[in-house]
Structures are given as structure tokens and as C-alpha cells.
Design a protein that fits this description.
Number of domains: 1
Order of helices and strands: EEHEEHE
Radius of gyration: 18 Å
CATH class: Alpha Beta
Structural class: alpha+beta
Strand order of the largest sheet: 3-4-2-1-5
Number of strands: 5
Largest sheet: 5 strands, mixed
Distance between the termini: 37 Å
Length: 112
């Protein structure tokens, strides 16, 4: 995520030539795979289609997206990764859990 004006903290202007803007960092450091405690759920309400949702990922948006991309590729389906959640299209929860296990993630099956 590039530094942009929206994330600047409180200072509008400084005459100090060595002044560095402070940026708010809203992203956490990514936990290692075995420190993650992911929740794997099924959602049947998205336009009548089934989706697998992986919640509680702790880390940067880039790491979330790369995990989402890897899961989508290995399952051969579409999906998205944003707001700390990965959505995988289709009823592929067992396959997703198998992949997470191989990658060393801690996960918990939630719901039906």
C-alpha cells in the first residue's frame, strides 16, 4: 500500500525541511500460518449460490489476497479477498480445509 495523503496524521504544512509525515498504518503484521486461527464457513445466501468464507485472517491485505489467490487457483474457482475475509465460490469447503491443513494453518469449521 503506497503512502498517500489520506493516511497522513494531523499535520497540514511544516516549514521544517527535514519534516517527515507520519502515516497511519491500519494493517497488522501477518501472523505465521500456524499462528492463524481461521474460521471456515459456508454461506448459501449470495444470489442463491454457495460460497466458502474464510474469516479472522490476521495480516496485511497483500498476504490476504495471496492466500485467496492460492485457494482459488487450487480449487479452480473464483472468489475475492477483502476486509479480512476470503470468499471462495462454490461448495468447496472440504477442499479449502485440506489446503489450509497442508499449508499449516490453524482453522476451525464453523456452521453446517
Amino acid at each position: 500500500m503506497g503512502k498517500n495523503k489520506k493516511n497522513r496524521k494531523g499535520v497540514m504544512y511544516s516549514t521544517n525541511p527535514d519534516f517527515e509525515f507520519e502515516y497511519e498504518n491500519d494493517e497488522m503484521e501477518t501472523l505465521t500460518n500456524n499462528q492463524q486461527n481461521l474460521k471456515v464457513c459456508i454461506d448459501k445466501h449470495r444470489a442463491g449460490k454457495v460460497a466458502v468464507i474464510i474469516k479472522d485472517f490476521i495480516g496485511t491485505t497483500d498476504d490476504l489476497k495471496s492466500l485467496g489467490k492460492m485457494l482459488k487457483t487450487k480449487c479452480g474457482v473464483g472468489g475475492s479477498a477483502k476486509n479480512g475475509e476470503i470468499i471462495i465460490q462454490g461448495n468447496v469447503r472440504d477442499k479449502v480445509m485440506e489446503i489450509l491443513e497442508k499449508e499449516g494453518y490453524n482453522y476451525k469449521r464453523v456452521g453446517g
